[in-house]
Amino acid sequence: xxxxxxxxxxxxxxxxxxxxxxxxxxxxxxxxxxxxxxxxxxxxxxxxxxxxxxxxxxxxxxxxxxxxxxxxxxxxxxxxxxxxxxxxxxxxxxxxxxxxxxxxxxxxxxxxxxxxxxxxxxxxxxxxxxxxxxxxxxxxxxxxxxxxxxxxxxxxxxxxxxxxxxxxxxxxxxxxxxxxxxxxxxxxxxxxxxxxxxxxxxxxxxxxxxxxxxxxxxxxxxxxxxxxxxxxxxxxxxxxxxxxxxxxxxxxxxxxxxxxxxxxxxxxxxxxxxxxxxxxxxxxxxxxxxxxxxxxxxxxxxxxxxxxxxxxxxxxxxxxxxxxxxxxxxxxxxxxxxxxxxxxxxxxxxxxxxxxxxxxxxxxxxxxxxxxxxxxxxxxxxxxxxxxxxxxxxxxxxxxxxxxxxxxxxxxxxxxxxxxxxxxxxxxxxxxxxxxxxxxxxxxxxxxxxxxxxxxxxxxxxxx
Length: 464
Prior knowledge:
Strand order of the largest sheet: 2-3-1-4
Oligomer: single chain
Structural class: alpha+beta
Radius of gyration: 39 Å
Number of strands: 6
Number of domains: 3
Helix content: 55-70%
Shape: elongated
Largest sheet: 4 strands, antiparallel
Order of helices and strands: EHEEHHEEEHHHHHHHHHHHHHH
Number of helices: 17
C-alpha cells in the first residue's frame, strides 16, 4: 500500500573504498542529526551496487512532511551539512542529490523512478519530457485505435477545429499566434498544409472509376447515348465539310452530298464499294485520335536562346510532340496533374523570398515569412476543397449552375481579400503601404504560378 508521504530527498554517495568504514560511521551520525531538524518524518539508508569505478555506494532517503519543509531545509541548514561532510572527506567521495515524490514511494520504500523506453530519461509524468514518447507502451483495441485516429474530428475543442476555423475565418491569426508563442493549441503549420493539400487533390482529381476501375462493372452504352454520339459526330462532320467548302477544297454540291453516319449498332462495312456507292464525301472519325494531321513537323527553334535550343532540339521536340498528341494529350494531362503538388510546394519558398524582400526592415527571419505563406496556401487548399464539395452537392441535388457560378465568384473574391487582411494582421502596416506590397505580392503570385506551371508542363511532356 502506498503511504501519504511528502517529498523524498535522496542523497547518493560514491565513496572511496579505503574510507568506507569511517564514512558509514559519519553517515549514521549525520542521519541522527538530520532527524532532529523540523519537517523530516523519517530517514533510511542502504548500500547500493558499486558504481562503474568499483566504489561502494550509499543511498539515503529523507522523508519530509511537505514541500515547504523541504524548501526550508534546502535554503537553510543544507549548506552547513554539506560543508561538514566535505571537511571530513574532502575529495574522497562524490555526491548526487534529487527530489522524489509520492509516486515513487510504495510500501514505505522508495522505488527507482521509471525511465523512458526511448531515450532513458527519468519520467515525471505520462509522457517523456525529453522526446515526448508515452510512458508506457501497450496494445490497444481496434476501437481505441479508431478513436485515437478520428477522435479529434468529433471533439469541438480539439486542435483540428481550433486550427481550421480561424484558418478559414480569421486571416493571419494562426501565423500571428504562432509567432507570439501560442502554438500547442493549433496543428503544426506544415502538417496542416500537407493534410489539406492531400485532401484537396484527392477530392478534386481522384476518380474511383479511373483509378480503381477493376472494382466496377463495365457500363454499356445505352441506345440514347449511342444516338447522341452519332448526332455529335454528324455535327462535327458538317462543320468540317463547311470549312473545306469555304476554303475551296471541295464544292458546295460535294459538301451537301455528305452521307449520314451509321449508328454503332448497325453493321459497318470497310469495302471500297461502300465508299463508291456513297456518292459523296465520307468523313471517318477515329475515336482514339483525330483525323487532322498534327503540326509536329513544323517545330521552329529559331527564336530560342542558345542554351535552350541546345537542349530542346527540333528532333527532340518533334518526338515529344508526337508522344503528347498520340492520345489527344491524355497521358500528358495525367503527368501534369501528378507534377502540380510538387510545383505548388516549390512556390512556397519563392513567395517567402518575395515577402522577405518586401519587408526588409521588419527584422523578421526568412522562416517567419515562410510560415505566413504556408498558412495562406493551407487556407487556399481548404477553401477550394469546400468549393469542390459544394459544387458536387448542388449537382447532386439538381440545383442550377447559377449557384455554382456565384460560389466560384465569391471564392475568387475572398482569396485576395484574405491575403490582404492576413498581411495587415501579421505585418501591422497601414492600408496604403500594405496595399502597395499586396499588389506586388499578388503580381508575384501570378508570375510564379505561370513559371512553375510552365516547368511542370515541360517535365510532364518529357516524362511521357
